[in-house]
Amino acid sequence: MPLLLSPDELRANMRLANPVTEGQRVLLPAGKVLNSADVDALRQNYPKLLVHIFDPMLDEMGVFADDSHDREVARNARKQLARTLSGVRQKFAAQMSLRNMDFCGLQQAVVQVVQYIRDNPVAAAILSTHAGSGHYLTEHPANVFYLSLVLGNAVRGYVQKARADDPARYGFDTAPPVDLTPLALAALFQDISLWPLEELYRTGAPLTPTQRQRVRHHPTTSAKLLPQNTPELTARAVLMHHESYDGSGYPQGLYGEQIHLFGRILRICDAFDAATATRVYAQAKSTVRVLGEMTRGPYAEFYDRLLLKVFSHLVQPFPIGAKVRLNCRRSAVVVRYGESDPFRPVIVIAFDTDGSRLARDGIEGPYPLEQHPEIQIDSFRGEDVSDLYNPDPNDSAPLVLTEFATLFESSYP
């Protein structure tokens, strides 16, 4: 497996193990030996990307988990999604009503992606980097779609049990096999009524009172825009995708299991993807920070804890091959995910305190951090994350949400 480095860590003469991509676009091909111009361009234009670099020494040790299947599933799912969303956006841009769309054809395309993800379960969800504000309202629903299906697939047994315990509540006389198609459709159309406000994503300006009201009611408006033959569960999930588990959400202020399971799934996936859209929102944060806030801090009150626990193991904070700085000031490489705590992966210590590479006989590990509490990750990609391991008790009080002022605040936490 290759080493994952940020552009600031790249040097000329390093060789790419995988292509450098942004969305569906290939920036640099696999196998290319980087030159100074390549490194400078990546640092200037794509500072948030992680780049896969060949590392023969670590690869020969045979300690890396293989995440190629997860990456292939994500790649194939997004290719299918891109075609589907492109058609929807073109019709919407032409001011065609959703009710007049070939919804049966769209639903069939979605079913194919649902079936693909069901047949190809993943250990970790792999997301593409947000391309920028001009693409956000296409890329965001694609990411929420993918995350929601991966999470829904992982908790399929829980879904089926919930329906078996109370089938009437889910609109069935008996408990049928779980169908995630309504969830997938909801992910695609949850923000459809915000598409005319796309300019706001480019500016990041504070919302006017009128815009704020429009955003607050967009779940209701989006649900009303759906075609008449939309599955009932799709409309319910769209309506509830901003409701919070503690009752602080909108538009109805529902709480707990008053919120349909699909709405609770969307709430987690929508918030996470919005919070990590660093090329769109100035307020956006890193994956590690967001996942830590959602699972380990007062933000956890807003989400279904069981779903959040599953989600945190699917959206791993430290990818395989990531270089992390430890509390001993040396640096390590993540070689496997943590089994019970995603913030405590399996590592090998491969770099000295000055950043120099350790000789082969000096490399230490693998160390499962779950079994070595004395070893903690201090920073990742230059960001101090030590507080995630030693939280301030003064920060444990539940967060009280106030009226949001921006689009970012309307989605996260």
Describe this structure in words.
By secondary structure, this protein is of the alpha+beta class. It folds into 2 domains: 54 residues; 240 residues, Hypothetical protein af1432 (Orthogonal Bundle), CATH 1.10.3210.10. Helix content is 40%, strand content 10%. It has 15 helices and 10 strands. The strands form 3 sheets. It has a 6-stranded antiparallel beta sheet with strand order 8-7-6-5-9-10, with no helix packed on it. Strand 9 and strand 10 form a beta hairpin. The longest helix has 26 residues. The chain is globular. About 1% of the residues have low confidence.
Helicity, as a percent range: 40-55%
Whole-number total of structural domains: 2
Shape: globular
Q: What low-confidence regions span 5 or more consecutive residues with pLDDT below 50?
A: 171-176
Summarize the structure.
With 413 residues, this protein is of the alpha+beta class.
Topology:
Blueprint lengths: L2 E3 L14 E3 L2 E4 L7 H10 L5 E3 L2 H5 L7 H26 L9 H17 L16 H19 L1 H10 L15 H9 L8 H6 L5 H8 L1 H8 L6 H9 L20 H15 L11 H10 L8 H10 L8 E4 L4 E6 L9 E6 L12 E5 L8 E4 L2 E2 L22 H5 L2
Antiparallel strand pairs: 1-4, 2-3, 5-6, 5-9, 6-7, 7-8, 9-10
What characteristics describe this protein?
413 residues, 2 domains, Hypothetical protein af1432, globular, alpha+beta, single chain, two-stranded antiparallel ribbon, 6-stranded antiparallel β-sheet
